[in-house]
Structures are given as structure tokens and as C-alpha cells.
Design a protein that fits this description.
The chain is mainly β and 243 residues long. The chain is built from no helices and 27 strands. The N and C termini lie far apart (86 Å).
């Protein structure tokens, strides 16, 4: 908040750092000497400013939110790994950020069902400690929301996609080409899975795949080699030219 004084010469000066700020009820709201007001609990209070024997006030009414929620109500992580979450309070009927929907992560009270599994900092930083499950509860003005946390030995991953090298083949009858298939995992790692791929061909008379994963050009024409890994399939076009 800002405070201004108007003098007899009609000069208006900002004086919020020169007077004294007070709250009529610090269980509702507090104010520091810079004029910064902090919500504490539901209810009504006046914020007073005293300067030069004069006093002015602002009426404050704090209400409970209709809803308190987390942007990540379910969290899975490994020991010594972390994840940031945010808590939002909704006041009213139609959410509008900055109007009746506010982030209150730094203002909630955190409680834990098992601190040996995971804990959270005041700013919403969850840290996994030991394998297990726990709940972290955020409470704001008597309204609560719960975050379910599971700490696992190894975070489950899945295959995002596969690729081949080379991506296509142009060769002559009787030639062979080595092909490598790589899979990208959801954790960002890439590994070769050539030996685990299921192979098929659209035209076995033109090109086929041997047991050691080589593509053999058999006769002039075009074929498509299919490589499938964990339900993901890619194609490798093959053109066979005459000798």
C-alpha cells in the first residue's frame, strides 16, 4: 500500500515510509512498515496509517477460498529427485487468474503423512527420500488439498519412437546392407535395439532381412522393410537396381 500527505500549499508527497502502519487484527492480516499487507486468516480488519498526528485506514475482508488445488495432485519420483508443484486458491464461480484465482504456494501450511518418504519446501519443491508412498497436504484458510506422492526405485519409462540408420536403401541385386534400429525412451536415453526388432517385408522376392539383421537385395524392384519394436513400427524403403 502507498500513503500520501497533502500539505496546505496543495503539495502532495508520498509518505508511506515515514509514518507508522498498523493492523487492527493480526489474525486476519499483518502489515509491515513498508506498507506490505500479508493475509493471515479469514475475517475483517483495518489497516491503519499514522503520520503527523493524522490517521487513515483501509478495510480488509478475507474470505475462505471456494477451492484449493494443486497443479500436480499425483507425483512420482525417484529418491533424491525433485519436482516443483504449485497450489492455487479459487474464490468465486468463474476462474480468472489474478481476479479470483491466485497462486498461494508460499502461503499454505504443509503437513506430511510420512516425512521419511518425501518432504516439500515452503515454495512447493518436493524431494523424494525413500521408496514408498506418502501424502502431502496444503491448507489455506481452513481449506485443504492433498498431493499423493510415490517414490519409486526407478521411474518407469516407455519408448517414444524408433529410427533406422540408414533410413532408406538403394542398391543393386545381390548386395547387402547393415541396418541399425535405435529407440528413444521417455527419459531421453537412446539405445540400439536392432536385435530386438521384429522384421517383415512387403516384397520378399525383392528384398528381405537375414537373421543377422542385414537387408539383402534379391531382384530388381521396390520393397518396404518394416521394423517393429514395442508396438512402434517404422518403414525402410528399398530400391533394388539391376546389376
Amino acid at each position: 500500500m502507498n500513503a500520501y500527505a497533502e500539505y496546505t500549499d496543495h503539495n502532495i508527497t508520498q509518505v508511506d515510509l515515514e509514518g507508522k502502519w498498523e493492523s487492527s487484527d493480526e489474525s486476519v492480516a499483518t502489515v509491515d512498515q513498508n506498507g506490505v499487507v500479508t493475509w493471515v486468516g479469514p475475517g475483517q480488519a483495518y489497516i491503519y496509517f499514522n503520520y503527523g498526528g493524522l490517521k487513515d485506514s483501509v478495510w480488509i475482508r478475507n474470505v475462505k477460498p471456494n477451492l484449493l488445488f494443486s497443479n500436480s495432485p499425483n507425483v512420482m519420483l525417484e529418491p533424491n529427485k525433485s519436482k516443483d508443484v504449485a497450489i492455487y486458491a479459487f474464490f468465486g464461480f468463474v476462474p480468472r487468474i489474478g481476479v479470483n484465482l491466485f497462486e498461494v504456494t508460499n502461503q499454505v501450511k504443509w503437513t506430511f503423512s510420512d516425512e521419511s518418504v518425501a518432504t516439500i519446501s515452503a515454495d512447493g519443491h518436493i524431494i523424494g527420500h525413500a521408496v514408498g508412498k506418502t501424502t502431502i497436504t496444503a491448507t489455506f484458510y481452513g481449506v485443504s488439498t492433498t498431493i499423493n506422492v510415490e517414490v519409486v526405485e526407478k521411474y518407469p519409462t516407455f519408448t517414444l519412437g524408433i529410427s533406422s540408420s540408414p533410413g532408406y536403401i538403394v542398391n543393386s541385386i545381390g548386395s547387402t546392407n547393415e541396418v541399425a534400429i535405435h529407440a528413444m525412451s521417455s527419459d531421453g536415453t537412446i539405445k540400439e535395439v536392432t536385435a530386438e526388432v521384429t522384421w517383415s517385408t512387403s516384397s520378399p522376392e525383392v528384398a528381405e532381412v537375414t537373421a543377422d539383421h542385414r537387408i539383402v537385395a534379391k531382384s530388381e524392384g521396390a520393397a518396404v522393410i518394416f521394423a517393429e519394436y514395442e508396438g512402434i513400427k517404422i518403414i525402410i524403403p528399398v530400391i533394388v537396381k539391376p546389376n
